[in-house]
């Protein structure tokens, strides 16, 4: 499953290429609570079809009624981008389904350039991080590749949005937990790959849309070329596979690195990596283990929910409280017993 950004851009391009008129809306600013963060996009076709989201649904409905001929709206203009604001008053916020006090500002682009969108998609599909700058005076778009993401920015002159590459997950081990994790990662917009040199494990893999990578896990991690939008999770339960893969991962920029295991096994892993591979307590600070947040999970599906929640928190730069840390929560539970 593609990320929602890619889905919106690709659909907008395909609609334009097929001769439809298209409006591209981007969340430019928010005040108070808001359903969608800045940079969120939706594409609206002139007949009322929508992909993507800028709110919980009411603002999308208003845009459809205002701008599509299907509902007697004014239609799409050929002018420069427009800036519109929703939820300025409490009554308006309530009308559009915004949270209490929420205000949302959108930038509307009317019939963006098909050629520019094609160029953008080509860069994103090749794994590039791309900055898309929109001139608000005339709608001109400038694309440039970048090594590091830049924060979304919207001034009176321009809107700058950093796009791609998509988030990736590499799983070491092809058991039931990996299948549940892969499924959850796919519907969260991750591109997922799995590596397991044990043929009997790979033979039973049943999740479509996941890339199968052959080789020993440490070699695969090295060739995977992780970046700041990559997470690497070892779930094979075999130290010969997990440990070497983790060593390679820890020397890269992945935003999340973790390994399945009990508190005791996680501690033994740390001791092995320090004693036999020259790691230190400091170098192992990025290694999550036991992985996941504490929800009392027992089954592979529940454990996958726990792990995916921790991965998404790391992706979104959310610091989790100690109460949901597996080691701390289980320790506290045992002390209270």
UniProtKB/TrEMBL annotation:
Annotated ranges, domain XdhC Rossmann: 169-311
Coiled coil: none
Domain XdhC- CoxI: 15-67
InterPro entries: MoCofactor_Util/Proc (IPR052698), XdhC_CoxI (IPR003777), XdhC_Rossmann_dom (IPR027051)
Pfam families per the UniProt record, alphabetical: XdhC_C, XdhC_CoxI
PANTHER family: ALDEHYDE OXIDOREDUCTASE MOLYBDENUM COFACTOR ASSEMBLY PROTEIN, MOLYBDENUM COFACTOR INSERTION CHAPERONE PAOD
Protein name in the entry: XdhC family protein
Organism: Pseudomonas fakonensis
